[in-house]
Amino acid sequence: MTGLREQKRERTRRQLVDAADRLFRERGYAETTVADIAAAAGVSTRTAFTYFATKDDLLFPDADERVRLAVDALEQRAGDDEPIPALLRALQGADIAVTDLIGDRAALRVALVEREPSVRGHALRRLADAQTAIGDALHRAYPDRYSPVQAAALVGAFVGAASAAAAAVAREAEGMTEAQRHAALTAAVGDALAPWTTERT
Amino acid sequence: MTGLREQKRERTRRQLVDAADRLFRERGYAETTVADIAAAAGVSTRTAFTYFATKDDLLFPDADERVRLAVDALEQRAGDDEPIPALLRALQGADIAVTDLIGDRAALRVALVEREPSVRGHALRRLADAQTAIGDALHRAYPDRYSPVQAAALVGAFVGAASAAAAAVAREAEGMTEAQRHAALTAAVGDALAPWTTERT
DNA sequence: TGCATTTCTGCACCACATGCAATTCGTGCG
DNA sequence: CGCACGAATTGCATGTGGTGCAGAAATGCA
């Protein structure tokens, strides 16, 4: 029962995101005003702000969805698995912000996260929020193994290692294919987390 | 040879920070304008912006200094020590942003980091910058033991664990003394990093 | 078609932030 | 001591992000 209203809403939302994406590429982020984006999407400036609360939000249209997926995945794994692999799998589905290296949109995001302070702050905020959400989920999934503080610390270590590695990989891997990047990232994270899963060589 | 000019500059800088601190407490962050702070410090609004580029900066007047100290400490330790304890000591001197739990100013900062999105982004940005700076320093200090990616991942894990633990401790430890908080924080971080330093129990 | 409700829009408004030119103020020199 | 140079301060204009509000338009429903 998708009403006309709902369809239209989804349509203008996409138009806004697409217009923002295009204009950011053409003119740069700082040089593009929200009014420009709204005009390009055929909508008033005021309306653009009802769809996306801030200019930065136009760059992260679907982040909440991803975190929710990761938390769900982690909670389903629950007890029938070791926590670290479960985390790995959960986070693979939730590569937000710095960790997100796939697709064209992501490339633009990564570039802007480095250049624009406001976007950088926005992305880091999302990452931190995701981190605490996943930490809580981990504690709920393995209540007797991890206290809230321990869970938070473990997820913090994991996310910290992952995003640091992702940033380093992104910096040094200009011409790589998507698959190669993913492999390098996974290898680096696995390497950093080796002490948790295996014996030190 | 501290000229009158230098003295005055340092004095108004302090007045700005103090006025901001006081007004933020009295009226709240969002309700205080930079113009208010400037007026309270006896200076024009325009001048306030030459001392601090953004409103958020008024809350973190000395962060750069701390990072520099931590990097220096890490580089001096260089080869004559194990990296993890060196990191621990270096980071103890550089408890920025979320990790910073000591003193009145810090309490205000922690509260605002949780409440105000803009401040939150600002603090996280500083933390991330510090993280990469320390990662680079670690790689330079132990070149054959850690590649740039490995160093970044290790520091990322460390900082991630530390700030996650700090946030959890701050959340749950309302009536603790400063010493108790420090102990709880150190214990949590040590616990999270145990796999790197000792055998798993 | 006609009514109720949601959505869009224009308008006024405020605060953050920056650039520029005029002015004031500290500093060093003759 | 006074003067000239450079640095800091200031006011002013401007642009942009973001919000509240009230009326107009579009949509769902009978």
The chain pair with the largest interface is:
A-B, 40 and 40 residues
Q: Which shape of chain A, going by the Cα principal axes?
A: globular
List the helices and strands of chain A in order. HHHHHHHHH
Distance between the termini of chain A: 59 Å
DSSP strand content of chain A: under 5%
Number of distinct beta strands of chain A: 0
Quaternary state, please?
homodimer
Largest sheet of chain A: none
Mean pLDDT of chain A: 79
Model description:
Two copies of one chain form a homodimer. The first copy, chain A, has helices spanning 4-27, 34-40, 45-51, 63-77, 83-92, 103-115, 117-141, 148-172, 178-197. By secondary structure, chain A is mainly α. Chain A is 73% helix and 0% strand. In chain A, helix 4 runs antiparallel to helix 5 (83-92). The longest helix of chain A is centred in the middle third of the chain and has 25 residues, at 117-141. The relative contact order of chain A is 0.09. Chain A is built from nine helices and no strands. The A-B interface holds A 117-118, 120-122, 124-125, 127-128, 131-132, 135, 148-150, 152-165, 167-169, 172, 188-189, 191-193, 195-196 and B 117-118, 120-122, 124-125, 127-128, 131-132, 135, 148-150, 152-165, 167-169, 172, 188-189, 191-193, 195-196. The structure holds a DNA duplex (30 and 30 nucleotides).
